[in-house]
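hey can u run this one w/ EPS bound, need the structure tokens asap thx
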Amino acid sequence: MHPPRRRARRPGPARPSDGRPPVGRLRFLTAGESHGPTLGVTVEGVPAGLPLSSDELAVDLARRQRGYGRGARQSIEQDRAEILGGVRHGRTLGSPILLLVRNRDFENWTRVMQVEALSEAEADELAAAVADGNKRATPVTRVRPGHADLAGALKYGFGDVRNVLERASARETAARVAAGGVARALLRELGVEVWSFTAEVGGVAIDPARATRPRDVADASPLRCPDPDAEAAMIARIDDARANGDTIGGVFEVVAHGLPIGLGSYVHWDRRLDAALAAAVMSINIVKGVEFGLGFEQTRRFGSVVHDVIEGRDDSGRWIHRSNNAGGLTGGVTNGEPLVVRGAVKPISTLARALPSADLLTGRPVEKAHYERSDISVVPAAGVVGEAMVMLTLADAMLEKFGGDSLDETRDNLARYRERIAGPPADAVRAGSAVTAESGSGGDD
Ligand code: EPS
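ok here u go:
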């Protein structure tokens, strides 16, 4: 007799709680410091056969650098992602993709950010720069309110906050956007498009009725905003902040079209797509809150006006809702409507008119926290980073559901699924209980 056959493990979702890395899905890891030689990111799990080029990745990297309210650093950087692994002759190989985004500003920080141990002569040179009052060379100890400075330095035992702020810097998001470009290329092949816009700055919100700019015009505008009047008022708020040595935040909105129904899951907390997306957007350095669709506004309205009435399935097999207050997700699962997710951006914590603070070493109050130079407002840039985090999460969810070692395989699996859900559910067909327009019956909760 043959021994009982062991059931092969189905390629399945990540199981974060078992401590092992997820298998068969998209993941990425960034490295690098703001003024170090380079940022880097490895993207793993992308199927083979996906067309990918550095020029394509440059588009989102440039979008992230723009925006009214950005500071002087962006005139130094001209971000490009070099592809150093995982791609041959313009197509992915299925192996990890390695991307580098070099920091042009590094040439102004070579000794301060040197990777190798300092020789005696180099240490002397740095000490002389400190004695000359060179701000870059001088250890940072006046921690900034609202930044990772204090907690980071204590946590790692650093006497120089530079060791924290170089990595806690939003510069790291350039690497995420490079990775997001890979996810965009994959999603595009699967029929999914993602973009974002600035919805609010300093309490000035767009009026949806006046948000008439087409997407390409909005994208090219100073704040990447679809409502020209609101944008003018937002710019005035940024100018106020600049004039006062202050900073200002806002809200970005990311929208994804073309998602199939059924990504994510309602069965376990750690497989809900809304939870994964919220974590991804919340992980952006400056983001302090995340909403889907109507978001917190739902709490102020009756259920009868909140829930999206389901019209039914149209002739092409698409399920239609009368509204999209849920923002494209119900029960942690995509419902076929556009995904709408917003990130709340706090004002940047590096203020030209620095707040009072305390010194890391003495523990005593100081009049002014550390200041080098800074942006005034980064809501449009944060929106591009939001797109990247949403795209990476959606690409992961697509690969969880459709798998595939090659793009063709993933595409075929998706096409078969789309075909299947365009008609009645399979078990109703098997049971012969499907289904005329009049025969459906509803159930209570
Ligand atoms: C940042 C401070 C500024 C920003 C930077 C994030 O950099 P610097 O200290 O060099 O002036 O410009 O963001 C970027 C460099 C970027 O590319 O987004 C910070 O402290 O978080």
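The radius of gyration is 25 Å. anyway lmk if its weird
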